[in-house]
Write the structure tokens for this entry.
Amino acid sequence: MNFKSSVVLALLLGMAQPLHAENLPAFNLTIKDGRYSPEMVEVPADQKIKLVIKNEGPGPEEFESSDLNREKLIKAGKTAEVTIGPLKPGTYKFIGEFNPKTAQGRIVAK
């Protein structure tokens, strides 16, 4: 590779910046007393997003979604981020694995 090719490659690589999780649109979820709030989160379709999930307890909870192929254990009093997408338009269910009868929600991509 000659000098000119090296410079062009370096410029191209410098312009190709990855989309980091901190730059993604964020949507907040809270888990408290075995329930998610809000139970429905509307997000833009065809775009990566991050869910910011705060566990207000009591006890740990596991965000789980077979629709989204994601699992994340969140200790009481802690906050976790889960990156998802881009999602096609539709509805994607999630649960709290430790409280599956009450900790239920859905993400609606439009």
